[in-house]
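Re: duplicated header lines in exported structure tokens

Our pipeline writes sequence and tokens for each protein into one text file. With two proteins the header for the second block appears twice in some exports. Here is an export where it did not happen, for reference. First protein block:
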Amino acid sequence: MKRIFHIHVLLLPLALLSGLGGCGEHNSESAGDGGGNNNIASAPVTTLELTLTDFNEVITVTGTIASYEDVKVPADEGGKVLQWLVPLGAYVRSGQTLVQLDSAIVRTNYDAAVAHYNIAQTNYERQINVYKEQGISELQLKTLEYQRDAARAQMEMSRVRLERTRVKSPINGTVNARLIEAGEMSAPGQPVAHVVNTDRLKILAGIPERHANSFRVGENVSFTVDAASGDTFRGVIRFIGAAVVRDNRTLPVEVDIIGAQSQLKPDMIAKMSVTLRGRTESIVIPEDAALKTEKDEFVAYVVEDNLARERKLTIGGTNKGRMLVTGGLQAGDRLIIAGQQHVADGQAVVVSQ
């Protein structure tokens, strides 16, 4: 009996200790009640009290630089290329001859056409006096006149063909490429040279259709070109398409580049920054204060009663590290802007001063 009594005496303190330990854990949960994460220590954070402010949304659009005058010059007449009259890379004027084609046969035809016209003209002039003396009928005179006119048309056509054996540039610009070499045969309509005028340049780009109504002809844009040391250039929107391109759901635009043509070249990639219509009295937060979830949603944390509270955000746009929030936050909220990566919804926090 003594041994049994002795065992009860030893178990009683253990039971008391166990009961006391259970009461302490419950009190801890009660202190953090309200959806808190009770097993996580208080996290140090920095907050920002939100106020209403103005916001201008800026979007980036990638485009390609192009020339207003970019021509592949065709040979209107076929024939053998005799020689190039300008070197590759030369600056040429509109109407300047680039290539001389073999004109021997065409010139012979032209000379024959000139002779035929001269004969027809002489016959007509002589027969005018005969007609006045009633030596020939009016019909015969008209026939001679029409023959003269036909010969003149034939001569003019031969002259144009002879002129076309000299391939000329239709624009001012630089000979960017030779598409045929001396000694090769050129067919009518075949391109022989590529001439580009870099005095006037533009940007060809596409606007996402959701922003189509935010652009206006005449608006200024700024852009950068990686190949031009990242300098910022200016341009003006000159054209906005009337229909969306089905393949990529964008609206075509053209931007007239202002100055800086010496630094830019056609086919360079330009990144345009376009400011959309601004908003007043909006909630704007630092962009890194918002966290992206696995569901591609944005959330942020605010402090309420020394607890972190998660808020799902509706984003209206971004601009240089600032984010427009159209839903989920309001003025007066204490937004966590430092330490938000290390807190959970309901966790106790310590706000740093």
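Second protein block, exported in the same file:
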Amino acid sequence: MLNSYAKSFNKAYNRTGKLFQLPFKRIPVENENYFKVLVAYSLKQVSE
């Protein structure tokens, strides 16, 4: 599923390669307050 999404995204924007290339990194969210900040930030980005 993600592979087909990447292909269609790349075709639409004339790109090649992976969508999340380096320096993409993940870190675990182990603190509830930090999680709340992340959710608020994400919702703010969607509404703008």
